[in-house]
Amino acid sequence: MTSQLAVRHPAWTIPGYLETRENHLTINGVDALTLVREYDSPLYVFSEPRIRSNIERLKRAGRLVNRPVRFCYASKANSNMRVLKTVRASGIDIEVNSGGELFKALRVGFRPHQIIFNGTSKTDAELDEAVGAGIYSINVDSIYEIELVEKAAQRVGKRANIALRLTPEIGTRSHLGLQTALLTSKFGISYSDVLDAFRRALLHPELLHVSGIHIHVGSQTPDVEPFAEAFKAMWEHLVTLHRETGHALEHINLGGGIPVNYLRDKSMADQLPEHERDMLGAELEPSEVLSAALNVARESARAASAEHLLDRVTILLEPGRSIIADAGLVLTTVRNIKRRPETNDVWLLTDAGYNLLLSMNNYKWYYHLVSASRAEATSDTDYKVAGPLCDSGDVYFDIEREGRLPDYRSLPAAVQPGEVLALLNSGAYSLAQMFHYNGRPLPAAVMVREDGKVDLIRRRDTYEDLVTNDVW
Ligand SMILES: *Cc1c(COP(=O)(O)O)cnc(C)c1O
Fold first, then answer.
1. Do 93 and 66 contact (CB within 8 A), yes or no?
2. What is the tens place of the pLDDT at every residue in 226-281?
3. 234 and 364 fall within a common domain
4. Do residues 443 and 368 share a domain?
5. 87, 91, 95, 98 alpha-carbon torsion, rounded to 10°
6. Does residue 198 belong to any structural domain of this protein?
7. Which atom of ligand 1 lies nearest, measured to the CA of 180?
8. Which of 36, 185, 228, 342 has the least C-beta neighbours within 10 A?
9. Ligand 1 centroid to 257 CA: how many Å?
10. For atom 3 of ligand 1, which residue has the closest CA?
């Protein structure tokens, strides 16, 4: 009966935040089972102290390089209003990708000069809102869009601040769907067009203030090299632009993509393909990203005698995942169990499907699964685990048999219906992407505070919410 042995500090624990007490999972000291009793299951749980400490880590990295660095939280990772409020209170800025995210950022109290706006397909209405608010930067995604912003500036009667987003053809070791700096990606202006694009943007200085340059190499980028390469490319464009036109850009935006270690507990890691393992288990410090980027720029600045330009540049980063992913988890209850005698598999059917964790389905993203009810028990038994949706693909393994997820999940022996499980590191791209498929009311979300108090930050849907926007 190895599963009766107490493991007080499993590898997935994070001291002071994610711990165990009397065999239960605790979040900043709050018992996960108490949360489920009070707020029902499934449930999103966030930790305010963890969000704060993730942001502190970024700020420390910024201080280390001893230059002006601004962090703009990529709100698409999680734009729950209370999460945004916590981010704002931590003193950093914000990145938005739609009129809706802009609305939320302003509503929660970010000042216009704290906001940057990315996106490939901005509407005229969105551009008017962004120009009207006077945000720090609209990141233009094509030469065509320069004209759209000019028209918005004309309509609104206000000068717009813009940066140009480039696609430099820089690969990373992340999923293709998460890489954004390849020429096969839909994002950005091709490098061969960059100088023309800047010249075009500088034609009407009364309408546009051209303040920066931007590359986002992608999400969960495990290595420092793509960041350094991107920074170097932007720096060189900045120098060329200055030489050719006299225009000095004020900021270089290195995008997001600082990775999160999803494999702090490596017990299932050997069941993942090597490439996935390296990506998901990445341990890259934001300080390494910043110092590598600056090192290449310094070298090149010295060679071009352009140190005075570098001294004037503010560096922007747009971290999303690295702020919120490991600050959140999903609690789910086992609702049904079955054994298939033919395969000898035990199936656990939970109440958390891919409508709550879309990445588990579309990127086969690995979220470490533990028992919250028996958090100190050894996980030595294999289960097939699946969600509640009426879709064969709603499983916690790779239904396509491409091996991108482990076929089985290890949990303590003799899991029974009613046991509460936790999908860890699931604070990013989860709640922000949830949907009502199968007539499922969306779950509640709670925020655990430093003092151990718990705030409801999203009410659970009622059945009525399922029909509020239908017209019949
Ligand atoms: C998604 C995105 C980010 C955030 O990426 P993370 O991996 O969550 O840090 C930043 N910038 C842009 C332009 C993005 O599209």
1. no
2. 999 999 999 999 999 999 999 999 999 999 999 999 999 999 999 999 999 999 99
3. no
4. yes
5. 60
6. yes
7. 15
8. 342
9. 6
10. 256
